[in-house]
TrEMBL record:
Entry's family note: Belongs to the pyruvate:ferredoxin/flavodoxin oxidoreductase family.
Lineage of the species this protein comes from: Bacteria, Bacillati, Bacillota, Bacilli, Bacillales
Single annotated GO MF: thiamine pyrophosphate binding
Residue ranges annotated for the Pyruvate:ferredoxin oxidoreductase core domain, each copy included: 280-384
Protein name: Pyruvate ferredoxin oxidoreductase alpha subunit
Keywords: 4Fe-4S, Electron transport, Iron, Iron-sulfur, Metal-binding, Oxidoreductase, Pyruvate, Transport
Keyword Iron: yes
Domain Pyruvate flavodoxin/ferredoxin oxidoreductase pyrimidine binding: 32-257
Record flagged with keyword Iron-sulfur: yes
The organism of origin for this protein: Evansella caseinilytica
GO process annotations (BP): response to oxidative stress
C-alpha cells in the first residue's frame, strides 16, 4: 500500500478538519481547484485530463465554486487564455495531456519567462504517433525545459495535496513561476483510492493565502507596464539568469511549503519519497505510480535478506540532485525506470540527470542502469519491478552493467506471424457505376447532376469494412457511406482524430478499404493539402501513373472544426483540389461528450452541465459552412442521411469541383445516440426534424451563389424547434418552463439564420 495512504490510518492532529472518501486523481485535482476558487480556467478536452474540467463544470452547476471556465478552440488557445488571465494578477488553472501539452508548448516558456504564476495539471499520456491515449511520461519530458516548476504526484491523495501546495509555491515572492502537477494518466487519474480532503474550503484558502499584490499587471491604469517587450542578447541573458535562479529557489520554497503543509494536513511530502533507502544496496528510481507498485516488492526482497529500496521524487524541476547523491551514497546499483525515451540519447532524461548528479560526488561508485518501460499505458506489475531489481542486483554483483540502457517488455516479433492482408483492395472500376452524370451548364456556370434510384447504388461497395467499433446507432458511417455513394472511383481518405478514426483503425486491424491517413486533430487539412500537391507534382514529373479521377477527402468531426479551423481556412484560401467533409455530432464525443463550438445553445454536454446554476451551453453554435463559404471556395454544402438523394447529388458535385476547380467543404449532420441521449432507432427521425425545424437547413453555395435545396416552409413541413429537441435527452430540459428563456433565444437565432439564408437564396451573390 502507498505510504501516503498508510498514513491516513494513523491518528494525527491536524489544523483543519478533514473528510475521508474514495476518489480519483482527476476528481481530487478538481476538488483542490474548486476549494481554492481560482478566478479562471482555460481548457480544451483531451483524454485523460478532460475529466478535470468536467468535474469543475459539474461543481459549478451546484454552486461549489465561482471559477470562470472558458472552453478554448484548442490547447494553444487554452494556454493563451491562461496567460492573458495571469497577466491581470488573477489566479489561473489548467489541465492537459500528451499532444495537448505539445500544442501549447510554445506558450509555456512565455509564461515562465515573464514570471506569471499559475497551476497546470499534466495528466501524463503517450505522445503520438502512433496514437495511444494511455499513460506514459513522453509528454512530461517535453515539459522539462519550459522553465516551470514540476511536482510529481503518485496517488490521488498526492494530487490533491500538491495542487494546494503548488499555488503557494508559484506565488511565493522568491519564485513567481508557473507550476505543473504531473500524475499518471488512468493509473492515477481514473483509479479511485482512499483520500482525505479538507471539509471547509475556507481552511484551504487560509493556507494558500490571498493572491499577492504589488507585482506588475496588465490592468493597472495608474502604473501601465509593457509585458513581453523585445529584448536583445544582453538583456535576455539577464532575464534567463533571473528565471533560472528563481527556479532553483523553488527547491527551498518547496521544502518550506511542504513543512507548513505537513503541520496543516498531517501528510509529509519530502523532496524525495524514500522507501527503505537507509541501508539499501540496490534501488529503483521511478516516477509516480510505478514507484508505489514497487514497494511491496521491496518488502519481499527484504524478507529474503536483500537490501532493496525505492526512490521517487516529489519534485523534478528543479531537479533534486543533492538529495539524490545522498540517497545513493551507499547504493551499489540503481535502475532508473523511465516511461519515455530520449531517442538516440542512450537513456532518457532522468537517467542522464541522475548520472549527472552522481558525477559531482567523486566518492560515489553507484552503477546506473536505464530501462524504458510502460509506454502507452503498458502495465507495470510486481513481477516487472522484481525483474528490474534483479537487473540491478546482477550489475552490483558483477561490478558493472552488462547492458546500461535497454527497453523492457519489447517483443521482436516473428516473421511467420506478419500481418496478412484480409481485405482485397478495392480500386478503379469497382467504385465506378457509370450511373452518376455530372455536367456543367455553361449558361448558369453551375453543375447539373443526374443520379439513379437509390436501389441501383446499393451495388456500389462500401468504403469502410464491417467490424469497426462504433456505438450502436452511430450516424457517422451511414452518413459517410451515403456521401461516398456519390463519389466515383478511387480515393485517399484522411481522418482527423475523432470517433470515426478511433473506431476504424485500432492496430492491427483496419476498416479502411482504400488508402487511409491519420494526423493530428488540428492540422488534417494542411496534411492532406500536402498529400494532394505531392501527388500532382509526382504525376507532372511522370513518376507515378494514377488515374485523374483520384479524389482526396479529409473527414473531420467531434469538434475538429474548432481546433482545426485555422488549418481548414488556410487550406481553403490556397484552394487545393480536395474535399473537407465534417460530420457534425455537436460535441467532442471521442473524449467524453464535451462541448464543442458546434454544440447548440442550452444543450447539455459533460462540460456544459445542467443544474440549478446552469441551463446548459451558454452561447450559440458555430456556422462552419458560412465561415468556409467566406473563403470563396468553389463549393460548400450541407447534407444529412435523412435526405439521401440530396446528399448524393452534392457528393457528386463535390467530386467534380475537387477534381477540376479547387477545395470543397461539406457538413453533414449525424446522430450520436450515446451522448445525445436518444434512441438508436430514431436517428433518421431526429435528423429530419433538425432540417424541418430549420435548425440544420439543406443548401449549397456554388461559385458564390446560395441555393436552398430543401425548403420545409415551401413544402408546408416546417415544425417547431421543440419538436426536434424532444427526441434528445441532452435537450429536454430546454422544454421546461424554467428554461423557456433559453429556448426562446435558441428559436430566435435559428429564425435569424434561416431568414438570412432565404435572402441569399433569393438574391445571387449576397
Amino acid at each position: 500500500m502507498s505510504i501516503i495512504e498508510d498514513r491516513l490510518n494513523e491518528k494525527k492532529t491536524t489544523v483543519a478538519e478533514q473528510v475521508s472518501t474514495f476518489e480519483s486523481g482527476n476528481e481530487m485535482a478538481a476538488t483542490a481547484a474548486a476549494q481554492i476558487n481560482y478566478h479562471l480556467m482555460g481548457y480544451f478536452p483531451i483524454t485523460p485530463s478532460t475529466e478535470v474540467a468536467q468535474y469543475l463544470d459539474l461543481m459549478k452547476s451546484k454552486g461549489l465554486h465561482d471559477i470562470e471556465l472558458i472552453a478554448a478552440d484548442g490547447e494553444h488557445g487554452s494556454a493563451g487564455i491562461c496567460f492573458g488571465a495571469a497577466t491581470t494578477g488573477a489566479r489561473v488553472f489548467n489541465a492537459t495531456s500528451a499532444n495537448g501539452l505539445l500544442y501549447m508548448i510554445e506558450q509555456l516558456p512565455v509564461q515562465s519567462g515573464l514570471r506569471f504564476p499559475m497551476v497546470m495539471n499534466l495528466v501524463t499520456r503517450s505522445v503520438s504517433g502512433p496514437l495511444d491515449i494511455r499513460g506514459d511520461h513522453s509528454d512530461l519530458y517535453y515539459a522539462l525545459n519550459t522553465g516551470w516548476v514540476i511536482l510529481t504526484a503518485r496517488t490521488p491523495q498526492a494530487v490533491y495535496d500538491m495542487n494546494i501546495m503548488a499555488l503557494k509555491i508559484a506565488e511565493h515572492a522568491d519564485v513567481r513561476l508557473p507550476v505543473i502537477v504531473a500524475y499518471d494518466g488512468f493509473f492515477t487519474s481514473h483509479q479511485k483510492r482512499r483520500v482525505e480532503y479538507f471539509k471547509h474550503r475556507k481552511d484551504v484558502q487560509n493556507f494558500v493565502g490571498e493572491a499577492p499584490k504589488g507585482y506588475p499587471v496588465s490592468i493597472d491604469k495608474e502604473n501601465p507596464v509593457t509585458i513581453g517587450a523585445h529584448m536583445n542578447g544582453d538583456d535576455l541573458l539577464n532575464n534567463c539568469y533571473q528565471q533560472s535562479e528563481a527556479l532553483y529557489r523553488a527547491y527551498e520554497v518547496y521544502q518550506e511549503v511542504s513543512a507548513e503543509y505537513e503541520q496543516f494536513s498531517g501528510r509529509k511530502y519530502q523532496v524525495l519519497d524514500l522507501y527503505e533507502m537507509e541501508d539499501a544496496e540496490v534501488a529503483l528510481f521511478l516516477l509516480n505510480s510505478a514507484a508505489e507498485s514497487s514497494k511491496d516488492v521491496v518488502d519481499r526482497l527484504r524478507a529474503k535478506g536483500i537490501k532493496a529500496g525505492v526512490i521517487s521524487p516529489n519534485i523534478i524541476r528543479p531537479f533534486p540532485a543533492e538529495e539524490i547523491r545522498n540517497a545513493l551514497k551507499n547504493v551499489k546499483a540503481v535502475l532508473v525506470g523511465e516511461r519515455a525515451d530520449s531517442y538516440g540519447g542512450n537513456g532518457a532524461n532522468l537517467t542522464h540527470e541522475v548520472k549527472s548528479a552522481l558525477q559531482d560526488d567523486k566518492d560515489n561508485n553507484t552503477i546506473v542502469l536505464s530501462r524504458v518501460f510502460g509506454l502507452g499505458g503498458k502495465d507495470f506489475y510486481a513481477d516487472d519491478a522484481e525483474n528490474f531489481f534483479q537487473a540491478a542486483i546482477s550489475a552490483a554483483e558483477a561490478g558493472y552493467a552488462e547492458k546500461p540502457f535497454d527497453y523492457y517488455g519489447q517483443t521482436p516479433g516473428e516473421p511467420e506471424k506478419k500481418l496478412e492482408q484480409v481485405i482485397t483492395p478495392m480500386t478503379g472500376d469497382i467504385y465506378k457505376t457509370g450511373l452518376i452524370k455530372v455536367t456543367k451548364d455553361e449558361e448558369s456556370n453551375k453543375l447539373k447532376v443526374r443520379i439513379p434510384p437509390l436501389r441501383q447504388l446499393t451495388q456500389k461497395p462500401k468504403r469502410f469494412a464491417s467490424g469497426h467499433g462504433a456505438c450502436p446507432g452511430c450516424g457517422i458511417f451511414p452518413g459517410l457511406e451515403l456521401f461516398f455513394k456519390g463519389i466515383e472511383g478511387d480515393a485517399v481518405i484522411l481522418f482527423h482524430t475523432g470517433c470515426g478514426y478511433v473506431v476504424t483503425s485500432a492496430y492491427p486491424y483496419t476498416s479502411h478499404k482504400q488508402p487511409f491517413i491519420h494526423n493530428l486533430f488540428q492540422n488534417g487539412p494542411a496534411t492532406l493539402s500536402g498529400t494532394v500537391e505531392a501527388f500532382f507534382e509526382m504525376k507532372r514529373r511522370g513518376e507515378i501513373d494514377i488515374d485523374d479521377d483520384f479524389t482526396f477527402v479529409m473527414i473531420t468531426g467531434d469538434g475538429g472544426m474548432d481546433i482545426g479551423m485555422g488549418s481548414a481556412v488556410g487550406t481553403a484560401l490556397r484552394n487545393h483540389k480536395m474535399i473537407i467533409l465534417e460530420y457534425d455530432n455537436e460535441g467532442y464525443m471521442n473524449t467524453g461528450s464535451q462541448m464543442s463550438y458546434s454544440t447548440p445553445i442550452g444543450h447539455m454536454t459533460s462540460t456544459t452541465t445542467v443544474g440549478k446554476n446552469k441551463p446548459g451551453k451558454a452561447f450559440h453554435h458555430k456556422d462552419t459552412a458560412q465561415i468556409m463559404a467566406a473563403t470563396n471556395i468553389p463549393y460548400v454544402f450541407t447534407g444529412t442521411e435523412a435526405f439521401p438523394q440530396d446528399l448524393i447529388k452534392k457528393a457528386a458535385k463535390a467530386q467534380w469541383y475537387a477534381q477540376h476547380v479547387g477545395l470543397v467543404y461539406g457538413k453533414i449532420l449525424i446522430t450520436c445516440p450515446l451522448n445525445w441521449k436518444s434512441e438508436d432507432r430514431d436517428g433518421e427521425t431526429i435528423m429530419k426534424a433538425a432540417v424541418d425545424s430549420c435548425f440544420f437547413p439543406l443548401y449549397e453555395i456554388e461559385q458564390g451563389e446560395t441555393t436552398i435545396t430543401y425548403n420545409p416552409e415551401a413544402k408546408k413541413k416546417r415544425i417547431e424547434l421543440s419538436d426536434w429537441l424532444k427526441y434528445m435527452g441532452k435537450a429536454k430540459h430546454m422544454l421546461k418552463e424554467e428554461n423557456a428563456h433559453v429556448l426562446r433565444e435558441f428559436e430566435n437565432e435559428v429564425e435569424r439564420r434561416w431568414r438570412i439564408l432565404k435572402v441569399k437564396h433569393d438574391t445571387p451573390f449576397v
